[in-house]
């Protein structure tokens, strides 16, 4: 058996085990295969093994792969998004996970409206408050989302996304994921018009099991499926 296939089988098993441990149904958790830097053949192979959702962090790379692969999978833009690159992906993405400022919402609204599309979006929250991380601060989230709800009719807020610190401290990772879930509950209680908190995008190769136990609905896994990335290979 090739490695992508066996890696995927292994990850599905670990996802199922984490769901069992946390008393969740495994259809509440969707695997996003993160295909950044991975070549088209490998992406196709993953699709043949049953992958339905792929994540890219660079708009042009998403667009390039979309031209070949198309709508056989759902495309998730998971990395920080520059305003001037929205145009490459607006007609291709199923969901944008990295909404973190109103200037980005302005551009998405303008582009989405021009093609009459509703864009599923997640608000990226910097729960861990690391300087290096993108995302709005937890305390700004409710005002930010109310603003989107009131002023950006083509942006559909479906939930939240966060990245845990890169650390071996499992308790710290867990507290970050729990923080996102608690914030989602708090936002849900506000009953903001056309905003839902159905999706929580959290957990990567190193921490997706903890994320599932804390309520993740999307886990974004790259390295554990495709191996270590080689950023020099194009
Ligand atoms: C690369 C990336 C991932 C996947 O990380 P791995 O450690 O390779 O599983 C997840 N989320 C985002 C935003 C990424 O950029």
Automatic annotation (TrEMBL):
Annotated ranges, domain Alanine racemase N-terminal: 24-229
Cofactor(s) this protein requires: pyridoxal 5'-phosphate
GO MF term list: pyridoxal phosphate binding
N6-(pyridoxal phosphate)lysine sites (modified residues): 36
Gene3D superfamilies in the record: Alanine racemase (3.20.20.10)
Source taxon at top rank: Bacteria
A Pfam match: Ala_racemase_N
Leader sequence residues: none
Keyword terms: Pyridoxal phosphate
Role, per record: Pyridoxal 5'-phosphate (PLP)-binding protein, which is involved in PLP homeostasis.
Family per similarity comment: Belongs to the pyridoxal phosphate-binding protein YggS/PROSC family.
HAMAP family to which the protein is assigned, alphabetical: PLP_homeostasis
Protein name (record): Pyridoxal phosphate homeostasis protein
Record organism: Paraclostridium benzoelyticum
Organism classification: Bacteria, Bacillati, Bacillota, Clostridia, Peptostreptococcales
């Amino acid at each position: 058996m090739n490695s992508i296939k066996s890696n995927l089988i292994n990850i599905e098993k670990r996802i199922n085990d984490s769901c069992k441990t946390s008393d969740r149904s495994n259809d509440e958790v969707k695997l996003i295969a993160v295909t950044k830097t991975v070549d088209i053949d490998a992406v196709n192979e993953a699709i043949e093994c049953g992958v339905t959702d792929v994540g890219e962090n660079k708009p042009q790379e998403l667009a390039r792969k979309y031209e070949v692969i198309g709508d056989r999978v759902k495309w998730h833009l998971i990395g920080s998004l520059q305003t001037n690159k929205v145009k490459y992906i607006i007609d291709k993405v199923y969901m944008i996970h990295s909404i973190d400022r109103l200037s980005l919402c302005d551009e998405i609204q303008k582009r989405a409206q021009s093609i009459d599309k509703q864009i599923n979006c997640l608000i990226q929250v910097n729960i861990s408050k690391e300087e290096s991380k993108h995302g709005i601060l937890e305390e700004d989230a409710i005002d930010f989302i109310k603003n989107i709800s009131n002023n950006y009719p083509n942006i559909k807020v479906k939930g939240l996304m966060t990245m845990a610190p890169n650390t071996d401290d499992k308790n710290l990772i867990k507290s970050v994921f729990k923080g996102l879930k608690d914030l989602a509950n708090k936002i849900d209680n506000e009953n903001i018009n056309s905003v839902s908190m159905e999706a929580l995008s959290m957990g990567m190769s190193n921490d997706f099991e903890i994320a599932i136990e804390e309520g993740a609905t999307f886990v974004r896994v790259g390295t554990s499926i495709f191996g270590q990335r080689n950023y020099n290979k194009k």
